[in-house]
Amino acid sequence: MPEFAPIDYCLLPIAYAEPKRGPMRSVCSLLIALVAVFSLSACGGGKAKKPATSVSAADKNVIAAYEEVREALTQDDLRKARAAGGRLTKAVEAAGVSAALAKAAMAPAKAIAESSRIDNVRGAYKDVSKAIVEVAGEVEGYYVFESPMIVEGLWLQTSPQPSNPYLGRALSTLGNPK
């Protein structure tokens, strides 16, 4: 089945004339129920998020350090981003971090901590983001956004309002929910 944009279904008006009695009333009621269920699922109404407890405490520590990097990049603050990158590296090295996250995030976390250019930090952040989104992208309390001006510019954050780490202060609120 092809994937459709939710807006296609969310804005469709449902109008019908219900028969007064007879077998057509049952058929019409069934069709209305099916259309309503399909519309809700296309609009995201049927998609449940995983509980926050599905992420380990160690992985949550990694995500918290990752959030610090995001906040620094949103403000174009290289010094704070590098410091947060150091905390991110330590969090990734800690015991209990999921193997996939540790493997994918270690090198980019070190690059964030050691880089002397903010554009390099943002590139490394993009690599960490892929791993973080895999771990917590579908978890309650976390929101995934996409930067419309950056190829594969995904990031995860705890606020439902976008705070774009890739574009800095000038366009910090530019981002689409994913």
Q: Tags for this entry?
A:
2 domains; mainly alpha; 178 residues; 3-stranded antiparallel sheet; disordered N terminus
Structural summary, described in words:
- This protein is mainly alpha-helical.
- The chain folds into two domains: 6-42, no CATH class; 52-177, no CATH class.
- Helix content is 53%, strand content 6%.
- The chain is built from six helices and three strands.
- It has helices spanning 6-10, 23-42, 57-74, 78-93, 99-114, 118-136, and strands at residues 143-146, 154-157, 176-177.
- The chain has a three-stranded antiparallel sheet with strand order 2-1-3, covered by helices on one side.
- A hairpin with a 7-residue loop joins strand 1 and strand 2 (154-157).
- The relative contact order is 0.12.
Radius of gyration: 22 Å
User: What is the terminal-to-terminal distance?
Assistant: 20 Å
Report the helical percentage.
40-55%
Main β sheet profile? 3 strands, antiparallel
Alpha-beta content class: mainly alpha
SS strand fraction: 5-15%
Strand order within the widest sheet?
Answer: 2-1-3
Question: What's the structural blueprint in terms of helices and strands?
Answer:
Layout: H1 6-10, H2 23-42, H3 57-74, H4 78-93, H5 99-114, H6 118-136, E1 143-146, E2 154-157, E3 176-177
Antiparallel strand pairs: 1-2, 1-3
Helix pairs in contact: 3-4, 3-6, 4-5, 5-6
